[in-house]
Every structure is written in C-alpha cells, then in structure tokens.
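Run: sequence + 2'-monophosphoadenosine-5'-diphosphate -> complex structure.
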Amino acid sequence: MEQTENVVRACVVGDPVSHSRSPLIHGYWLDRLGIAGVYDRRRVTADEVEAFLQDVRVGKLRGGNVTVPHKEAVARHVDALTDTARHLGAVNTVWGVDGQVWGDNTDVTGFLANLDERCAGWDRTREKAIVLGAGGAARAIIYGLLTRGFQEIGIANRSLSRARQLADELQPEGAQKLLPIAWDARSDALKNANVLVNTTSLGMAGQPSLDISLETLPVQAVVHDIVYAPLETDLLRAARQRGNPAVDGLGMLLHQAAPGFARWFGQKPQVTDELRQLIIDDMNRTAA
Ligand code: ATR
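>> structure
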C-alpha cells in the first residue's frame, strides 16, 4: 500500500512471521472502527531488530508486535519498559512516544482478561494454582497469577531445573509462593488446586498429547489451556466431562492484541464473538 502521511502504520515482526494471525486481528478492528491504518507482517532477522526499533523511534511506524525469537532482544534495546515487561525481560508490544520506543508485555493482561471474560470469578479463591510448563508463556502467566494474589503456584515442568530457575527469578521478595514440581508428580500436585493452566505445547495439533490425570483436582477448579489449535484440547474435554469450568486459549491471543491497537490507533477495540469466529474460520481454512 502507498504510504501517505495520514496513514498510521504498525506491524508484527518475527522470524518466522508468516503464521502470525495478528494482521487478521488488527485488520478486523481497523475495518470495524473505520480507521485509516495499516498493520502488516515483517520478517525481521536478529540483525534487523535495531532498524525496526529505529523506524518506531522516528515515527515511520507507530509501533508493532514482537514475536519469536525477538521478545527478549527487544526488551534489551527499547528506550523504556513498563513494569511488567521489565519483570519478564520480554516485550511483545512496542510504540513510539516523543522519539522514544516503549515496550510492554501484554501476554499478562491477555491471559487475565480472557479468564475474566470467559469465567468471571475464576480468581475468587486464590490459594493454589498449578502451571504446567516453564517457558516464556509460563513466565507471563505466573506473573499474572502473582498480581492476582495467588498464595501458592506450583510449576510442573519436564526439566525440573528450568522450573526451579523460573521460580527463583519470579519469587516475590521474602516469600515462598512459587514451588517447582517434578513432571512425574504433576497429577498428584492437582490436589486442592483452584486453577490449572497448561502453558506447554502438549496437546497442540501436531504435538504429543498432554498425559495427566485430573482425578485429584477439585471439580470447582478452573482449567485453562493456552493452546488454541485445536480449540478443545484433550485436557479441556476431560475437564468439561468431569464438570470443571474450562477455558481455551484463543481469547488470550485476542486480548493480548487489544492494548497495542489502542496505543497505535487511538481507540480501544472490542474482542467480539465475530472476531473469535473470524480466527476460528481462518484456522479451519489453513488446517484444511
Ligand atoms: P513458550 O515460550 O511458548 O512457553 P518454550 O519456551 O519452548 O515455549 O516452552 C515450551 C514448554 O513446553 C516447556 O515448558 C517445555 O518443557 P521443557 O522446559 O522441559 O523443554 C514444554 N514441553 C515441550 N514439549 C514437551 C514434552 N514432549 N513433554 C513435556 N513438556 C514439553
């Protein structure tokens, strides 16, 4: 598209980036809100990250989203970070202000807003949460659970050393809220839990399934899978069948996009059922 001065531009950068559904999400909002903006995807290598940030600094771009593998590098190279992004050491959203590039991590608000929307009151009892996985997604989710005041958060991961490291890094000062759990103990650890979140890739289309027994999990506990392809994973199906509230991961993807849109294009977008269906249709098309 031709660049004109009135058109606000943003994009998603990553490597690879062709799979990103961010252009579909932001394109939907631009269209529905009647905003003359552009949001596209750019494949950016590690060497090109600085040039991308410079485009934001000088206003050629109003901002953008950052995806794998650049989230940590961008956190090191922006001019200013929100508290969340500083704690996580990872940035997924940038924007320019007066010649400076700001970075935020909206995976945290995306995770929380999705559960708030789809399972109101999910955090009413905050005694114990169990998180499966210890990667970048787990980091954002554990941080989100801490901000909501969960007293104990168990981190079960295949490599226990990674769970230990994450617990050490995010442990609030003077507290012992984060507990590493051996992968073999994941099913037993569900006893008395109020929330269970899968942040691993297990259960995703093309990946091995997540092998876990929900037998000891209280039936009131909320089960959330951040996997959204398929929408109903084996974990969520098993949870629903025994009466647990179950929330899929698509809403996290949609809600993490909203704060960036508001910063670049000046209007707060809505996560609607129509948008959700648009992404589901796209997933069905690309899987076909
Ligand atoms: P992300 O940034 O999306 O969280 P990641 O950092 O690659 O991605 O983390 C993937 C998570 O899935 C990790 O917790 C990983 O466990 P390890 O830390 O032991 O690698 C987990 N995972 C991936 N494949 C797995 C498998 N076959 N069995 C158990 N856990 C697995």
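>> summary
The first strand starts at residue 8 and ends at 14. The mean pLDDT is 96.
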